[in-house]
Each structure stands twice: as C-alpha cells, then as structure tokens.
Write a structure and sequence with these properties.
The chain is mainly alpha-helical and about 450 residues long. The protein is built from 16 helices and no strands. It has a single domain, classed as Up-down Bundle (Growth Hormone, Chain: A). The two termini are about 30 Å apart.
Length: about 450
C-alpha cells in the first residue's frame, strides 16, 4: 500500500549503506555498543513473555483471584492503569531526559524498578489480590519507561538508511531473550509438576528466573551504551497534561506525518496488545490448553517473531518502512481470521505462528519509522509520544476485548474477530502517511 502522490525514498541498495556492518552505524558507534543496546531488548522481553503473557496472567486469574468473575477484569484494569500512567508521564520524563542528557540514568532506574516490583509478585498467593495488582502496575510502568528510553537510542546508533535493520536486530534479540526466559521457566514448571507441585509453589520460582535473566542481561546496556546528548536548557515546567498537549500540538504544526504515524501505531498496536496480554487466556478458555501447552505456544510465537524481526528488517530497508508495515498488517488480518476459524489445535498453531512472524516485523517497522521521522536532539521526547501511542493502544485493545466477552457472555471468538478491526484501521491510517514529506520535514529541522 503505497501513496501514489509520493513514495518513500529507497532505504537500501547502493549508496549510503554498504554491505558491511560498520557502514550501517553512525560515526563513532562501535558494534559492541549496538550489541549492548540490543541486549536490553533481550533482557526485558522475558518480562512480557512470562509475566504478562504466558504464566502470571493465568496464575492471577486462576489462583490469586480464584477464578472469580471479576478476576480477568481486574487483571486488564491493572495493566490499563499502568499504561494510562505511562501515557500521562512519559512525554515529561522524555523531555527531561533530553534536556539533562540522562537517558541512560533513566534506563537504569526503570530497570531496577521493574525487577524489584516483579520480585514482589513472588509473595502473592490465593487472596493476595491487592498486592498482585499494585506490583503489576508498578512493574509494568517501569518496563514501559525502559522500553521507550532504549528505543530513543536507536537514531543515535544507526544511520537513517539502516534504521530498519538495526531495529530488527534489537527486536530479534528481544525475542531470543524471551525464548530463553520462557524455556528456563518451562523447565521449572515441568519439573515441579512432575513432583506433584502446584502453581502456588512453582510460579514464584518462575518469577525469580525471569528477574534474574532481566537483571543480568541488562548489564551490558548500562556499561557500554554512551550518552551522546549534551545537557541543554530545559523547557518550562508544565503539569503533566499540559506537557502532553504541548507535545501533541507540535506534531500537528511541525511534524504532521509523525502525528499520522502515531495514529496508525495506536490503532494496530491495540490489536497487538490483545495478542500479548490475552493469548494465554484465549488458548485456555477456547482451545483448552494446559499451562505447559500455553508456554510452548508462546515459545512458538517468539520463534516466529525473532525470525520475522531479524529477516524483515533487511526487507524494510530495501522496500521502504511504509510498504513493509502494510504487508505485516495484512498478515495480522489473516492471522485473526485463522484464529477465529480454528476449532482444532493444529489450525490454532498456524495462527500462533502467523502472529509471531507479524509481531516481530510490525514492531520493528513501527519503531524504525518513528526513528526516521523523529527530529534530532529531541529523540527521547518524540519516542515518548511513540510510547504514548503504544500505551493508549494497550488500554483500548484489551479493554475492548474484555467488554466484548462480557457483553456476549464469554464469546472469545467474536472478541478476537473484533480485534481484527484494529489492524484494518491501522492499514487505512497508514495510507495517509507520506514518508517523503515527513523525512523532508525532519531534515529541515522544523522543531521549535
């Protein structure tokens, strides 16, 4: 789906980027620094894979909430609250990080907060609803801060023509990290169940494994990533809502293509958020999967996501980020239709594989497009707007799914079909993004 009036300039081929790895990077950027940056994706992916998707979501509903009618709603509400807090605070945090050249410091603080709050989940058992909800709100909030800040390093590391490839390296590393954490957790669960242990006994150990991988794998980022920004004059302090409104107005005045991209991202990410946060619930409630089966399913999704993110990063640099994103959104629509029609496990596994391939490529392409259109010198602030769009989607998507299941007395199939509308909407909004014009705006340095 390309814009007939203006097509995106070629991102690869002969010219600015040669085949060698060094030519993909900005001057002064070493390969080990890119590896350290990608290792943060490796580190934090275990949190979403194990805590949010595969294990703790079902543990909260089944054990902590004792399968009460409100348990699923409480889980999605807690996540929505954390995403809402990110939406309201991240633009201000990003602007301050830019002004103080403190992205790495903020990355470290958010990592410590996420690991610490996640460890608090080991103390939750039947009836510990409020402890679990508070811990998940804090841990997910800190996770989202780190995700936004580490993304803001991307344009400092990669040349404009190589953003897709380098972004794809990070996402593929991330899914490998998710698979490692999930694999180790699966070993814990399998051995525990073989000894007759229940979820109350083995889930805390799964959480410890997840936090350990996160903390250890994040260390290279703290030691090797360089802070290239220079401290500048901070903009006047505003309350959080005014800061958010100010940043949004700037995109409309000076960076309209960036605003259109944010709207597109918010739409399709709502569908992706459903897959990330409710895949285990769907597999359990509709397909009757057990905990080990769910973990293997998520493992398959991560394999597909890692392969898609790594390989498709090269494709998007060659054919253009916009066209690449359009292809993956069509893949998401196909995935939804397959999942809706699946009545047997093999067909559902096909849907899961499609979801993995699309997830890695979509997230990589979206981050690369954001990096391509964000103005230099304000990367953390503009990536905070990207985070705002992603978190807005994370509020809308799962809540929409939950409302559909509530209104239809638990019809998960209809809920997943409604989820497909988010991808259709994202495809329509993407057609309005003129990458050539957006890149020209960025080069003109139209920021105020």
């Amino acid at each position: 789906m390309s814009d007939s009036r203006n097509t995106e300039p070629p991102q690869g081929g002969s010219g600015a980027v040669a085949a060698g790895g060094d030519s993909l990077l900005n001057p002064g950027v070493a390969k080990r620094e890119v590896w350290a940056w990608a290792m943060y994706d490796f580190a934090n992916s275990g949190y979403t894979t194990v805590i949010l998707t595969a294990v703790f979501s079902t543990y909260f509903v089944g054990v902590v909430g004792a399968r009460a009618s409100w348990a699923t709603l409480a889980w999605t509400a807690a996540l929505s609250l954390s995403y809402l807090l990110i939406m309201l605070t991240m633009p201000t945090l990003g602007a301050r990080a830019d002004a103080r050249a403190a992205k790495r410091r903020l990355l470290f603080a958010s990592t410590v907060g996420c690991v610490g709050a996640t460890l608090a989940l080991t103390q939750t058992g039947p009836g510990d609803v409020w402890l679990a909800l508070v811990a998940i709100v804090i841990s997910n909030y800190c996770y989202c801060v780190g995700e936004s800040v580490v993304a803001a390093f991307l344009p400092e590391l990669a040349r404009p023509a190589a953003l897709g490839r380098v972004s794809g390296w990070g996402w593929s590393f991330g899914y490998c990290g998710g698979m490692l954490t999930l694999g180790l957790s699966l070993v814990v669960v399998t051995r525990a169940e073989a000894r007759g242990m229940t979820a109350e006994h083995f889930v805390p150990w799964v959480i410890v494994v997840t936090c350990s991988v996160f903390a250890l794998a994040a260390l290279p980022s703290f030691f090797l990533l360089r802070e290239r920004a220079r401290p500048g004059q901070a903009q006047p302090a505003m309350d959080l809502l005014r800061r958010l409104a100010y940043a949004w107005r700037e995109t409309g005045t000076h960076f309209p293509e960036f605003r259109r991209l944010l709207m597109c991202i918010a739409c399709y990410q709502a569908g992706i958020s459903v897959v990330i946060t409710l895949a285990a619930v769907y597999a359990s409630e509709v397909m009757g999967f057990t905990t080990p089966q769910i973990m293997l399913l998520v493992f398959t999704v991560n394999i597909g996501a890692a392969a898609g993110a790594f390989s498709f990063g090269y494709v998007q640099d060659r054919i253009g980020h916009k066209r690449a994103l359009a292809i993956t959104l069509c893949g998401w629509i196909l995935m939804v239709l397959v999942a809706y029609a699946a009545v047997t496990a093999p067909v559902f596994w096909v849907a899961a594989t499609l979801a993995g391939l699309c997830m890695g490529t979509t997230q990589s392409a979206g981050r690369a497009m954001t990096g391509a259109l964000a103005p230099a010198g304000r990367l953390a602030e503009f990536f905070s707007l990207w985070t705002f769009a992603v978190q807005l989607a994370a509020v809308i998507g799962p809540l929409t799914y939950g409302l559909v299941t509530w209104a239809t007395d638990g019809n998960h199939r209809l809920a997943i079909l409604v989820t497909g509308l988010f991808f259709v909407g994202g495809l329509a909004l993407l057609s309005r993004v003129d990458m050539a014009r957006g890149l020209a705006r960025r080069e003109q340095g139209a920021a105020v």
